[in-house]
Amino acid sequence: MPTPLRIAVLASGRGSNLAALIAARDAGTLPVEFVLVASDKASAGALRLAEAAGIPTLALNPKSYPDRPTFDRELFGRITTSGADLLVLAGFMRVIDGSALAPWAGRVLNIHPSLLPRYRGLHTHRRALEAGDAEHGASVHFVTAELDGGPLIAQARLAIETGDDEETLARRLLPLEHRLLPAVVALVAAHRLALGEAGVLLDGQPLHAPLQLGEHGLQ
Length: 219
Description:
The chain is of the alpha/beta class. It has a single domain, classed as Rossmann fold, CATH 3.40.50. It is built from 6 helices and 12 strands. The strands form 2 sheets. The chain has a 9-stranded mixed sheet with strand order 3-2-1-4-5-6-7-11-12, with helices on both faces. A 3-stranded antiparallel sheet has the order 8-9-10. A hairpin with a 2-residue loop joins strand 8 (193-196) and strand 9.
């Protein structure tokens, strides 16, 4: 059998996308090995999920470091030591210093709750509603030093309904996020997805538009 892709996950919150990744692994649809789940918050629910699943965990307090680059170098040093092949940001609420990211170019994914390039940063559901958008969604992209600005890989779309508020929109989007992220990680695990000089490559060919999540997966 091929060696499973070794992945590390960074999360700041409850870890629902991490739970989706673990569930996909347990279902046999995601051939990965979790080597580390790390957080900038010792109280993060994601760490408790990882502990329950027998995954090594790490919590580092940014306030214990003199500046962001020092914290990020320590964090990424620990990720490197874990032996991870791929790093997945699943609700990690910090901007990462470019010098720490550079050695990991093409090996870091992020899921963001908007149809990028719309609404980088925070409060994406509120901003979509305030703009009167007809649809909202989530995006998975390769991470660069530009906030939520790396090359797009795939998206999930959701119609905004009359009466939606931030809470209902977020709640309806989450199940799509939980399908989208494992589907993209599965492409990496199958060696079908990469970042090259020409941008995102799927099966060796440039991806000219983000893949879309449909009823039967990415298309």
